[in-house]
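Practice problem: VOC family protein
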Amino acid sequence: MKLNLNQITIPVRDVEKSISFYEMLGLKLIVQALPHYARFVCKSGDSTFSLHQSNKFGTDNIWIYFETESLDQDVIELQTKGVVFESLPKEQKWLWKEARLKDPDGNQLILYYAGKNRKDPPWKI
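Answer key — C-alpha cells:
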C-alpha cells in the first residue's frame, strides 16, 4: 500500500472567520460552503487543508505543521499583519527551525523549515 497525505480537516467554531486567518497565512481558498466547510490549497505541494464547523474541541489535540523556506521573513510579514506568535523562529534539537502560533480556535500551528532533515534526519531508521 502506498499512502499519500491528501488533506487534513480541522474543527473550527467560525468557518468564515477562520478563512480570513488561513488566507492571511498564504493558503488559497478553493471551496467555500458556509457556514459549515472550506478547503484550501497550499502554494507549495499538493496537499489540501480544510475547515469544518464544530463546537467540539479538545485541549492541545491538533498540531499542524506548515513548512516554508522563508520562515524568518514570513514570520516578520505575518507580525506586520497583527499575527501574534507564541514563539519566534528557533533552531530545535530535532534540527528543524520553528515558530509557533495559535489559530482563532486555539489549534497549534507550527511554521517551520527542516530542509533535508524533514525526511532524512541523522537518526533516520
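Discussion: The chain is about 15% helix and 35% strand. Students who identified this feature from the C-alpha cells alone can consider the problem solved.
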